[in-house]
Amino acid sequence: MAMSLSDLASIANILSSIAVAGSLAYLGLQAHQNAKHTRALIQSARVDRLMNQMIGFSDADKCAAYLIGNGKEPTQQAIQERQFFMQCLGQAGVMLDVFTQHQNGLLDDEQFNGVCGTYRVWLREPGFRGLMIERNAAFRDAQPEFVAFVEALMKDEMA
Question: What are the sequence ranges of the domains in the chain?
Answer without folding.
Answer: 14-158
